[in-house]
Each structure stands twice: as structure tokens, then as C-alpha cells.
Design brief:
Blueprint: E1 4-7, E2 10-13, E3 18-24, E4 33-39, E5 46-52, E6 58-60, E7 68-73, E8 78-83, E9 92-99, E10 108-109, E11 113-118
Parallel strand pairs: 2-11
Antiparallel strand pairs: 1-3, 3-8, 4-5, 4-9, 5-6, 7-8, 9-10, 9-11
Length: 119
Amino acid sequence: QVHLVESGGGLVQAGGSLRLSCAASAGTFNGYIMGWFRQAPGKEREFVCAINWSGGSTNYADSVKGRFTISRDFAKNTVFLQMNNLKPEDTAVYSCAVDPAGRGRYAYWGQGTQVTVSS
């Protein structure tokens, strides 16, 4: 069982930045994929980005490439999402998730944090 807690959401003006954190319960995450997803009102949840906990390779949705950066801190068991040049269409609840097998099946989810970007 992996427990995830997100933080860092809030209200920001278009063009601004936010940094989200996802603190994971203690344990070994070698081989795990840590991902960020978002869901806007009335829309389906969509993939934002992911990182291989061990190797550090990353993957981004086209809509956030060049603006968002995912990273991890081994000592803190935490994954970060740095979001720059935010746009109103980035408004959503952002959730982190863990794919233990690295096969695209996210088994553990955080509760989410709201990000609101005003125009």
C-alpha cells in the first residue's frame, strides 16, 4: 500500500507558476512510475506527466511540454510538478499516482489538489 499526499495547489494568474508536491509513504519505489494527472470540471481525467522513480526518465503530455517539469527527491520520497507559464485551461484538480509495475496501470492515488488559473 502506498499513501500519497499532494500539496501546493492554489489560485494564480495566467503566466504565473506553481509547484505541486506529492509526498509518498516510506518505502522503496525502484521501478515505479510516478505520474501526475488532472481533471477539469465536466472533463475526463487526463495524463499530465510521469517519471521513472529509479532512472528519472520522463514523459509529458503535449499540452504541457516546455511549461511543466516533473522531478523527484529520493531523500524526501516526494515527486514535484513545477508548472510555469500557466494558462486558464490548466485549471483542474491535480492528482499524483503510482504505477508499481511500470505498465501504465496506476494503482495508488492521492486525494488531489486544486489549481485555478485566472485570465
